[in-house]
Amino acid sequence: MRSDGLHVPGASLEGAAGRVEVDADHLAVLLAKLRAQQSFPKGLLAGIVAGVLAALLWAFITRVTGYEVGWIAIGVGFLVAIAVRRFGQGMDLRFSVTGAALALLAVAAGKILAICMFAAAKAEVGALEIFNELSFEQMLALLQATFNPIDLLFYGLALWVGWQFSTRAMTQEELASVLRPSGPSSGIFR
């Protein structure tokens, strides 16, 4: 018995409500139902749209304030992750990987767009005009030239938020539906 009340071999839980066990058959049915509701294409598309919008917003804020506010990277990651979760309804690992990757790409795109906005203001041309002329290698060179070690923290946080919040969890009701009383109980699960 572990101190958190979880008894692993019997897949049972023990707490204030007494002892309950996970009904493996009900759990399998529930997981099959939840996986059938997943839509990776919708989650991916929503994450891309959210990433583009968040990158544009971050670049705009950077241009208006004149400062690259690194903490916004967390918000960018969060927006991407919520879009992936809301529209993908995913529980599988691929949703977490997608959320993290798109969050990182959105943060990098936001930084590049901000640089383009500053350059566009000096050259008196449109920022997207400059952005569209950049090759992938030039974008990487821009990121390298403007790199600051603190960027690793913000990229890492955006990755973590993108990973952590891109999948749905079971609701309390869903979890309760797979539990059954085992042994003495206070009557909550009867």
Give a written overview of the molecule.
The chain has 190 residues and is an alpha+beta fold. It folds into two domains: 6-34 and 172-185, no CATH class; 39-164, no CATH class. The protein contains eight helices and four strands. It has a four-stranded antiparallel beta sheet with strand order 1-2-3-4. Helix 3 runs parallel beside helix 7. The longest helix has 31 residues, at 93-123. It is elongated. The two termini are 24 Å apart.
Helix and strand string, N-terminal first? EEEHHHHHHHHE
Largest sheet: 4 strands, antiparallel
Shape type? elongated
State the share of residues found in helices, binned by percent. 55-70%
Strand content: 5-15%
Number of helices: 8
How would you summarize the topology of this molecule?
Layout (H helix, E strand, L loop, with lengths): L5 E2 L4 E4 L2 E5 L1 H13 L3 H26 L6 H17 L4 H31 L3 H7 L2 H10 L4 H15 L7 H6 L1 E7 L5
Antiparallel strand pairs: 1-2, 2-3, 3-4
